[in-house]
Every structure is written in C-alpha cells, then in structure tokens.
Amino acid sequence: MGQLSREEIAAFCIAWRDAEDSLKAVEGELLQLPQQPINELRYATRHFIRAIEADDAAECRTQYDAAIRHCTCASYDTAEAVLLFRALRFKLFREDFKDFPIETPVLDYKAALVAYRGAQDALSRNPEDRHHRKTHVQAAVASLDVFDKSLDDARDELNKAVAKDRRTRNQWLLGFAALVVAAIAACGQAYAAIVRADKQQALPTAVPSAHPPKLQP
Amino acid sequence: MQNTRGQISPKEGQITSSANGADSKSAATSLMKRVDRYQARGNMLAQMGCVLTKEDQDRARAEVLAYKF
Question: Would B36 be classed as within a structural domain?
C-alpha cells in the first residue's frame, strides 16, 4: 500500500478537482446536471482506491493511470456538454432569424460562423480518443465564449429590428388596403353615375302640354 | 477550511498532497461519498428533467455534427 508518490496523489487531486469544477460550471450554464462526468468521477475514484490498495507496483501504475484517464474523460464530457449546448443555442438563433439578415454590431456574425464551424471540427476530431480531443474541445469552448455571451444581446437587438420591420410592413399593407378600398369606392361611384345616366337617357322626354288630351269614355 | 489545489482536506473528501497511504485511502473513500452525493442529486434532478443523460448528449452531438454552420 502507498506506492504512489505525493506528486502523483497531488496530480490526481488536481485532475479530480478540475473535473469537479467544470461539472459545477456546466451545471450553472446548462441548468442541467450531466450524468456522464459523474460516472467518470466514480470510475476515477474507484481506480484510485485500487491503486492505493495495490500490492505490486505494476498494478498500482495501471490503476493510477486509469484513474487519471477517467478524470480527463470527466473534464472532456463536461466541456463537450458546454460546446454542444452553445452550438445548439447558435443553431436556434440562426433558425429564428433565417428570414431576416443577421446584421448587428453586437455580434460579428461571420467570425461567429467560423468559430462554430471550428467547434464542429473539434467535435468530429479523433472520435475514439477523448483524451486528446479534450484539448481541442476546451479550446473550442473558449473560442465560443465571446459569441455566446453576445448572443442574447444580438437577439434583443434583432427582435427590435424585426418588430420595426413588421410595423413598417403592416403600415404599407394598411396603406395599400386603404388604396384598394378607395379605388373600389371610386369605381362604385362611377358605375352608379353611369347607371343613373343610362336611366335618364331611357326615360321619354316628357314635355308638359298646355292642353292635355281628353280621355274618351 | 482552506482549500488549495493539491492540498485538499480529507475531511472534505479531498486529499492532501502529503497524505500517507491510510490517509489517501480514507480521503479517496470520502471522494467516493462525494460522488454518491452528486449521484443522489442527479437522481433527484432527473425527476424534474434537469439531468443531461448520455443519450441526450449523443443526440445533441449528432445534431450539431449534422448541422451546416
């Protein structure tokens, strides 16, 4: 027992603590508790206990490495959860404003697109190797920080622009409708005038006679 | 209680870098208890739908990878 050096124990503590910190952070952002990192922390701790209890050095080393690996996986899973959450948030944002040009000083849209494509690339890289992918995913999460934070402000601003656009469009529609109604009314009046004129032409010219004809019995 | 990286109190379920084997083991056991607490909290939150399961994460990953940014 006790074949682990103090540095190794400290390294495990740091890795465990890092994973736990990111778990807390991700819960705060997603308002959901990710299940996978908890399981990974459980595996990590179990391997660490086995490493402490191991009688031979090789077994101790194997268990210790597994413990560190699970801590890394826990960190990776939390980072991936954040990345997915942010990517889906951006997707929703794009879908909400798909009929509207996304132009706002709050969000550099083209740069955001590049960053989100980079995040997608980080997700698809080394699918079998979570240990190496962790670095890419954590870097991608950091690169999305600025865009994700400005997304709410951009949404507010674009909503205002959309509302203004809708108001203008409604005013145009109202104007056009009034024009159509006026045109119909004018046509109706013109038709009525024509009908009246026709009726007047059809009536016999009744000239009042001074001596009306006497009626014969 | 002062907690700095690598020097974490066993009482809190954490390990000091100077811990010996027995201390490490008791601290590791405490860590496991801490994981159990997270798990219990996860079970409670699951009833409110506030847990991100592996399936949820897999589905989200597939959706993000399929989307054209």
Answer: yes
Q: What three-state secondary structure class fits B16? A: strand
pLDDT tens for A76-99 read: 999 999 999 999 999 999 999 888
Given a cut of 70, is residue A216 above it in pLDDT? no
CB < 8 Å to B32, chain A = 42, 45-46, 49
**Buried b / exposed e across A101-140, counting CB within 10 Å, b at 16+?**
ebebeebebeebeebbebbbebbeeeeeebeebbebbbeb
The verdict on residue B3 lying in a domain is no
Report the chain B residue with the minimal C-alpha distance to residue A112: B69
> CA nearest A76: which of A32, A50, A114, A41?
A41
Report A:125-184 residues touching B (Cβ under 8 A).
Answer: none
Could you tell me the mean pLDDT of each successive run of 10 residues in chain B, 69 residues long? Answer: 40 47 75 91 91 93 93
Are A144 and A119 a contacting pair, CB within 8 Å?
yes
- For residue B41, give the chain A residue with the closest CA: A33
Closest-CA distance of chain B to residue A166, Å: 27
| Residue A2 touches chain B, beta carbons under 8 Å | yes
Work out how many domains chain B is built from and give that number.
1
- Are the beta carbons of A30 and A81 closer than 8 angstroms? yes
Its pTM stands at: 0.74
**Phi, psi for residue B51 in degrees, rounded to 5:** -120, 135
